[in-house]
Structures are given as C-alpha cells and as structure tokens.
Amino acid sequence: MAFLKIEHLEKSFGSTRVVKDFDLEIQKGEFISLLGPSGCGKTTVLRMVAGFETPSSGAIVIDDKDVVALRPNQRNIGMVFQAYALFPNLTVGENVAFGLKIKGVGKDEREARVKEMLTMIGLPDLGNRYPFQLSGGQQQRVALARALAIQPHVLLLDEPLSALDAKIRVSLRTQIREIQRELQITTIFVTHDQEEALSISDRIVVMNGGVAEQVGAPFEIYNRPATRFVAQFVGTLNLIEADVIAPESGTVRIGTTEISLGRPLKPGRVTLACRPEAVSLGLAEGRPLVLHAEIGEVHFLGAVIRVQARAGRTQLSLDTFNRPDTPPPAAGDKVQVSISPADLLVLEA
Amino acid sequence: MTDATLAAPAPEPVEVQAPRPRPSRAAALPLKWLGVAPFMLFALLFLIMPTIHIVLGAFQTPEGAFTLRNLQGLAVPQVVRPFMLSIKISVLTAGLGCLFGLILAAAVTKGGLPGWIRDAMLTFSGVASNFAGVPLAFAFIATLGRLGLVTVILKEVFGINLAATGFNLISFLGLTLTYLYFQIPLMILIITPALDGLKREWREAAEILGASGSQYWRMVALPVLWPSLLGTFALLFANSFGAVATAMALTGSSLSIVPIILFAQIRGDVLQDPHLGYAIAFGMIVITGIANLVYIVLRTRAEKWIK
Ligand SMILES: Nc1ncnc2c1ncn2[C@@H]1O[C@H](COP(=O)(O)OP(=O)(O)OP(=O)(O)O)[C@@H](O)[C@H]1O
Ligand SMILES: [Mg+2]
Predict the structure, then answer these.
(1) Which residue out of A10, A13, A33, A193 has the highest number of ligand 1 atoms within 8 Å of its CB and is therefore the one to mutate?
(2) What is the model's pTM?
C-alpha cells in the first residue's frame, strides 16, 4: 500500500495545462526524484503536494487521507526551498525551533530537539548565528533541519542544491540522502540535474511538458529509457541513422556496414541510439558492429576520456577509461569503433 | 519630500583633493565636477550657508558676541508650547501615516490584487506625497471647509452637519487630516520596496511549518520590517515637523506650531528678536536632524538584514 498517492493530478493556469494526468505512488521511506527540463511542471506538482497550489482536478492521498482540501499548515509536511528561505530575523536555533514553537512544544524539549537536529546536519555550534552569517550550503542544511524538526510525514525539496557550488552540491546531496535513509522519511526531490537524480534516488520520475514520461529506478531509466525524450534527456546519447533492409531479421545498414539487431523492425529508416560507454575504441569482443571513424575532439575528464568521433554522417561520443600507459587518441586519427547490437535502442521517429 | 522643509542635514563636506603634480589629472578634475556644480552651488547657497548662518546666529548676541542666552530664551511658554504641539502633530501624523500606509501597501503588494492596482496606487502616491502647501490647503478647504463640497453634500444629502459635530478644519485635527494626505502616500512609497523584500519563501516556509497568517506576520514579517518601519516613522516625523507652507495656508497663524511662530518671528511681528528666531530654527534643525539620522541608521540596518 503506497504511503503517498497522486492520482490523475491536473493543473492549469488560465488556459495552459502545466500538469497533465499525473499519477505516482510512493512507498513509505522512499526517495523519489522529479527530473525534467525547466518549465515541465516539477515545482507545480511539488507545490500541489505541499498545498501552495490547488489542483484543477485529481487526488493527493497521504497515509490514506486525501489532503487536497487541507491548508499547507495542516498537512504536516516538511519543505526545503531553492534558497533564501530561512527567516532572517531569527537565529539558526530559532529557525529550527520555529515549527516546534508553533506546535506548542515546551522550551526544554524544543532546545533538545534543536540540538539534535543541528548535530544531525553537522553544524552543532552554529545555533546562535544569523542566516546572513552562513554560507549557502550551511543555510540549506539549516533549512533541512528546520523542515525535519517537526517530524513531518513527507519531505519535499525543490532544487535545494541548485544555488550552490558544484563541489558542495555533490557532498550535500550525499548528506541529504544519508539523513533521509536514517529517518526513513518519504521524500520527493525536484531537480533538473540528471546526475543528481541518478545518484541519490530510489526511483526517478522523468517529466516533460507536464507529463510523467517514465517512472523507474535510476538503472532502468538510464539503460532502458521508455521514450525518446527520456533517452535524450538522461545521459548522453549517440544517435545513428540506419536503413532497415530486412525487417523480419532486423537487419539494418549503417553507411556501408550491415548488421542484424536480432529483433523485428518496421521497414524504412530508423534511429538507433546508444550510450557513450557502449561504444569501444578499436575492436572489442562481443561488439560485432564495427564502424570506421575519424577522431575529433578529445576531452580528458580524469578517470574517463570522452572522445568525439565521426563515422560517415554519424557523430559519436565514446568514453574510454584513462590508462596511464596508453596515451589517448589524437584528433584526426583514423580508428575503428565497435558496438554491440544489444546495446542499440531503437527510437521511434 | 514635501513642503518647505526648513532644515535638512547638510550633505557630507566635499573632500578637497590635494593637487596632483600630473597636469592631465589636474585638468580632468574640474570637468568631472562640472556636472554636479549647479547642485553644489545650490546646496551651498540655499542649504549650507543658511544653516551655518542660523547655527551661528543662535549662539550670538545682536552685536555678534557668543551667548547661550538665545537658547535659554527658548524656554518660554510661547516657544515651548509650539514645539510640543509640533512634536505632537508630527508623532500623530507619522504614526497614522505609517499604520495606514503599511496596510495599504501590504494590500497591494501581498494581497494578490491585479498588478495594475499596485501601479496606479504607486503612481498616485508619487504625486500625492508631493502635493502640499497652498494647493493642498485649498483642496482641503474646498472639500472639508465650512462651505466645502463634502461638507455640503453631507449636510444636504445625508443630513449630517459637520460643523455641529465640532469638526473644524482649521484645528489640530484638521491639520492632522491634511498632513495625512501626503504622509500616507509617502509611507506607501517608502515601505513598498521593503514589503517587496519580504520573500515569498518566508511566508510559505512559515505556513508549511504550521504557522497561520497572523503568526507569520507577528514572528517573521513585522520583525523583519521593524527597522524599516521605525526608520520611516522618523522620516515622516521630520517631514511633518518641517512642513510650513501647508500649515500656513490652512490655518493662517491661528495654530501655533513651530514653523508658524518661526515664520512670524522672521517677519518680526511677535517676539521682536531675530536671534531668538535663529534659536528656534536651530531647535528645528536639531530635531529634524535627529529624526533624519535615525532614519538613515535604521535603513542601513534594515538593508543589512535583508541582504
Ligand atoms: N503561478 C503561475 N501562473 C501561471 N503560470 C505558471 C505559474 N506557476 C508556474 N507556471 C507555469 O507552469 C509551467 C511549469 O512551471 P514549474 O515551475 O512547475 O516548472 P519547473 O519544472 O519547476 O521548472 P524549473 O526547473 O524552471 O523550476 C511553466 O510554464 C510556468 O511558466
Ligand atoms: Mg521549479
């Protein structure tokens, strides 16, 4: 039985539908990310769960109660905003204690709770500082402590890391995930950063144009994208145009090379797609599709080297691991690249 | 600002740069300052020199010797009473201006009204906060005076006799009402940016943490606005304290507030002592100066917070 259920949720602003027939079931303690491009309706979904926006239709059920008619202050939900949401007139400790004070929790218990929360986020000594005396990362951690202090049923985070430096972003997302696991709190995390979503979620909802295109575990989303949009939005994708020459056996021609994909295809042209790591430089066992290519840009990323190569009209990105004893290829080198037909996704036009 | 404000804090003295040896710099300097020269000249002639003149005069005998007698001369009922009255009227109009201005500004910025209402209100406030002096007094006389339009309508249509209720425009209450005409808009103009500075996230964070609207205002919004509110109060106080033209035009000399007795003093019909006049003016400079200082200090404090 799902703990949080969203059913046929719709939202229109004026005549524009920004959330369309959105369904989602979240288990207790699950960490769900809403991932999608800017303007796809992620924030709107989150704000409807929080109660800041009223759905045009549909239901939001938390712990078997339909909450749509409840005001935000009656829903017992914790929320972390993108930035600048700490009360500037209150100290860190007072910010964290705010929700408890509203609830009428006594002073001693409040103070104990604040201490516990600040220790949890790793800032036990900053209780007396004001928000403007904190770094952005510290502010967001305090915002998390403030949201969690009231022991909410559900935690909502709307791009809480997007205003921070790359380094802090990575360490803080790990910390958020650790705290979430420890408290076993049901969480919806909004982001437009696919790496962020892939790295910390139990499941990801990929949204586009107000619609949930696919819901699945990161591994599934990345390796078995359900739609062309998901395939292109999550991770880097090589697109290869091919002509189907024998539909039943799934044989296609790419440039002058012919290969069977081993599954039936519709006749005509198809677009095949594969991840950079599914393309090897040189010949490789189990990768019988071999294309002749010329090396273009070479980006040395550290452990991984991302190489651009051109095979006829097809532009390919491929990743190889850095090996200290082998220098990377250079621009202009003529090479062979190999792909396993099993790694090729067939995208509908 | 409205009205003929008699005293305002003098601008910071311009730092005189030491002449540089390089001729190019020396030639560039005057050109750079040319644009602001009219302002400097104006400030010097009409603000700084008169202020210095008044301050010096307040401490001088008619013969030019140093004395504290002028300031001691302020401690007579004819002077103390107007000062008290002026302070009273300024506190009252500043307080009411702040209250109503805040409510109106909050309604248009946070009330979810269509944007054009806010624009219309701000535009009107910009005009009204500068509407003062003779035209304002005339407008009030023409509406709420003995034969004013509103007075007549109340009487003819609703049967309410304003005069019989004891209302008299040429009175403390009347003057307060008239001052509010520019005090409220001035408050709206100044407090609207501060209200815009209240982040939507604060309200929503408070709400999701369980707070009601009034708890949010009491625990977050008002404390954040507090320095701005106090600062604006000080500014409105100074604004009202220095307003002379409106008071003159409305009441003639029947209401003894400081600017009016000062005016009388300058014309020489009451106390017959120009140096006492300087002392009165000096008193006004001190009071408005303090109020302006409070405004500036509190405003910087408020800005630091909301950063
Ligand atoms: N209050 C509103 N009135 C009108 N349109 C709105 C309102 N709020 C959001 N929208 C529109 O709804 C769409 C979805 O907005 P939403 O904020 O949910 O997107 P998002 O996925 O969170 O994007 P981002 O990544 O940029 O935050 C956008 O086209 C936006 O312009
Ligand atoms: Mg958003």
Answers:
(1) A13
(2) 0.78
